[in-house]
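Here is one chain, start to finish.
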Amino acid sequence: MSETPSSLDQHAAGILLRDVTKRFPGQDRPAVNRLSMDIPAGDMVMLVGPSGCGKTTTLKMINRLIEPTSGQILLGGKDITAANGDQLRRGIGYVIQAGGLFPHMTVAANIAVVPAMLGWDKARTTRRIDELLELVSLDPQQYRDRYPKELSGGQQQRVGVARALAADPPVLLMDEPFGAVDPITRERLQDELLSIHADLNKTVVFVTHDFDEAVKLGDRIAVFAEGGHLVQYDSPERILAEPANDFVRQFIGSGAGLKQLGLARVSNVSPLPVVSATAAEGPQALLAQAVSAGQDAAAVVDGTGRPLAWLSVAQLEGLRLLPAERAPQLPTVQAADTLADALNAILVSDAGSALVTDAKGRLVGRIDAQLILAAVRAQRDAISSVPQPPAAGSPQSPASSTDAGRP
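Its structure:
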């Protein structure tokens, strides 16, 4: 099966772990203990848990940097233990902290490592380098010939992702890739990864200690306990709403309800109506509309429907002209923003609500705290109404959801 990587190129591949165990010499208990997981093709699966729980060991067994003691790992339906290890790894992207770049090689040379091993010609490799640098938001002209020491931590991490994607692998493994960068850069890298994943549809297995990061990025989250036990494997929504046991509950930490706000989008909520007018229509006309509609605030929009101001009835009563320029710190959110973003905008808004705009910035309505609360309750009710899948490692399903009997 030496053709495994090339046969999977350009397609997401599912990963199936069947009763996988890893014991290191001299250790009393296994690093990973009878792990069964089904990672669907195209999903981003987050591995979380305390230090020493087997997350990175599991990741490295998938590309055979570490060999399992027992069990079976299938990639795209094929047993990886039958493949040539070096060739297997050339067909799997791998990203670590700070990108793991070779310091003596330029950005272009770093990205070209795997294509060179695969025998790509220079023209094809150059095209691929430029495509990937643009994909990770780095200008090829500016960064192609730089060395890692000339890059910031975030830029190094972007190059690391580009290098991992160079041969268009079906699977991308990421081991704490954003752990060494500052919080602002980390958030930007997370957003870029979500965008890349949406565009490329790769299967991603991502190790992190940060549960908030797992919630933001993951289609599914696998929670490990010490000793390599899989405690719960499910969607972020269900794990937050219905943690399997006290261990998962403690690992999630406080504020599970607030974390759920990061999972739902403003687009999932039907916005409330907003009275609006252009500056040319004048404050009295806008005030009359607001009073007639029984609303205590109204919006000023430009000629294309983009909001410029959000004014209370009391403010309108004292105005002779409506503002024709956009007000600073106008509380607005887009349909693609999360309910957490919306709640933050509401909390800093004097009007107690935020304006909702479409992708082109045009006003479509408003959202308030009561609407957000109702959306979260509806989400929880929907999750609770769906039966739990079989427990981890059960004969019915290796793609387990929970294993409530473990610590």
